[in-house]
């Protein structure tokens, strides 16, 4: 089994081992309940709990040691004492990443990061490839994803970086330090702390400023912000029916699958994959462009993509007791919401009603009301459809619909998911579930006769 040297970890962290030095480390965790044999437990402090209280529990699960700010003498476990556990994780991850031979792809953007990461990891999977665990892309998740022993032997690594505040990307960029950069999209997201879309681009662009960077690729919505991204020479990957420019693409739906044609260095190649929608097509085209640039053959790309499937609850279609359900419950911002709605509308029958259960978009700051009203004006509701909106800006969505002259007889604001049960009762047609993670809209699947919660 691959391992990480605990002495190296101490050196990178600027810490000191107390109560002994563990054997080789097989990975890290910050959840004592999920600690595994040989892992290092990070005793992180949060507003909700102090990880130091769980060092003993991690030991009982088999942890080989712990990273702590104060040594717990009563726990017979090697402990790496550091001034700040969060900062130490970032320093260790930076040190470990700098020892890799792997070519690293850094992915960021207002939406689509995880899907693009999973697509690219699939395309590179013919060689040993490390990729971000799930969507662990923040100041804790990135170090946890990097500090895995398989990084030492990896040929490629695909790491996503997500931020919500100024200054975070600078810290993540020092860890990821990519040879290849991807910005999936730029739009209104995390405006609560970032303020404007221009500021979003300025912060995201810090991932692309490292000395290792060979080339950056950006999606269509990022093109207007190339100057803010600080990467005006980036390759723009965008739809073009004529396929006149390198990296341009066009896509057509074939049932539940898509056929994407893309110009790769002068030659048009065709690929197929599971799923539909403009957002997914953009992520697929970005992943293809990067993997091809990294030396992966078209044949390998085509074969890998053919068997790729979207993750659960991300642009996922399910058949639930005869209902066609579109499930996308991991995040929501104006770009992803409109893309999901367009995908759903084009893939559902015109002669059947549709039920939309929408969770409000979070962290939009002072722009929240305006952006939700804009969503209401855009909303593709027909008179036979039903709309349920949950969240603090639900009234703004309905206000936007009213201002656009829409009938609101079948539009309702709800405050709890349980209130949706009666609306699902007896409904026959297609169902749309999209919203920020906090609303856990997938729980409404239980309201469909025979449905099951994810």
UniProtKB/TrEMBL annotation:
Give the Gene3D superfamilies listed for this entry: Mur ligase, C-terminal domain, Mur-like, catalytic domain, MurE/MurF, N-terminal domain
Domain Mur ligase N-terminal catalytic as annotated: residue spans: 25-96
InterPro entries noted in UniProt: Mur-like_cat_sf (IPR036565), Mur_ligase_C (IPR004101), Mur_ligase_C_dom_sf (IPR036615), Mur_ligase_cen (IPR013221), Mur_ligase_N (IPR000713), MurCDEF_CellWall_CoF430Synth (IPR051046), MurE/MurF_N (IPR035911)
Is Metal-binding set as a keyword in this record?
Answer: no
Q: Which residues form the Mur ligase C-terminal domain?
A: 314-422
Q: Could you list the residue ranges that cross the membrane?
A: none
GO molecular function annotations of the record: acid-amino acid ligase activity; ATP binding
Q: Name one GO biological process term.
A: peptidoglycan biosynthetic process
Q: What are the entry keywords?
A: ATP-binding, Cell cycle, Cell division, Cell shape, Cell wall biogenesis/degradation, Ligase, Nucleotide-binding, Peptidoglycan synthesis
Q: Which residues form the Mur ligase central domain?
A: 107-291
Q: Looking at the record's lineage, which domain of life comes first?
A: Bacteria
Specify the protein name: UDP-N-acetylmuramoyl-tripeptide--D-alanyl-D-alanine ligase
């Amino acid at each position: 089994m691959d391992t990480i040297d605990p002495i190296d970890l101490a050196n990178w962290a600027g810490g000191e081992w107390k109560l002994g030095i563990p054997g080789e480390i097989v990975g890290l965790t910050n959840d004592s309940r999920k600690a595994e044999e040989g892992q290092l437990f990070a005793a992180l402090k949060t507003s909700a709990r102090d990880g130091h209280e769980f060092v003993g529990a991690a030991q009982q699960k088999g942890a080989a040691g712990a990273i702590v700010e104060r040594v717990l003498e009563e726990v017979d476990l090697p402990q790496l004492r550091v001034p700040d556990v969060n900062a130490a994780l970032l320093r260790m991850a930076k040190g470990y990443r700098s020892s890799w031979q792997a070519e690293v792809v850094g992915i960021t953007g207002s939406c689509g990061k995880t899907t693009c990461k999973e697509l690219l990891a699939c395309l590179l999977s013919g060689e040993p490839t490390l990729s971000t665990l799930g969507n662990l892309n923040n100041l804790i998740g990135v170090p946890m994803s990097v500090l895995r022993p398989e990084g030492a032997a990896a040929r490629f690594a695909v790491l996503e970086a997500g931020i919500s505040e100024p200054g975070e990307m600078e810290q993540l960029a020092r860890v990821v330090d990519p040879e290849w950069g991807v910005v999936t999209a730029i739009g209104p997201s995390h405006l609560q702390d970032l303020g404007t879309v221009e500021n979003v681009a300025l912060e995201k662009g810090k991932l692309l400023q490292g000395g290792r960077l060979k080339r950056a690729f950006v999606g269509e919505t990022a093109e207007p912000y190339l100057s803010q991204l600080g990467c005006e020479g980036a390759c723009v990957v965008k739809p073009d029916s004529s396929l006149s420019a390198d990296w341009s693409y066009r896509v057509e739906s074939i049932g539940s699958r898509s056929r994407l044609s893309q110009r790769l260095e002068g030659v048009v190649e065709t690929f197929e994959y599971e799923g539909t929608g403009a957002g997914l097509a953009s992520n697929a085209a970005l992943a293809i462009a990067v993997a091809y640039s990294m030396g992966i053959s078209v044949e390998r790309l085509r074969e890998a993509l053919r068997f790729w499937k979207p993750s659960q609850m991300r642009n996922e279609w399910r058949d639930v007791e005869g209902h066609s359900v579109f499930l996308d419950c991991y995040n929501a911002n104006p770009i992803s919401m409109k893309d999901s709605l367009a995908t759903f509308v084009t893939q559902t029958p015109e002669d059947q009603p549709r039920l939309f259960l929408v969770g409000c978009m979070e962290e939009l700051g002072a722009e929240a009301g305006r952006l939700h009203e804009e969503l209401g004006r855009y909303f593709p509701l027909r008179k036979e459809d039903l709309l349920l909106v949950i969240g603090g800006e639900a009234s703004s969505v309905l206000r936007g619909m009213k201002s656009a002259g829409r009938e609101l007889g079948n539009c309702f604001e709800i405050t709890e998911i349980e209130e949706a049960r009666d609306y699902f009762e007896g409904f026959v047609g297609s169902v749309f579930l999209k919203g920020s993670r906090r609303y856990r809209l997938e729980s409404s699947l239980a309201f469909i006769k025979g449905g099951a919660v994810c």
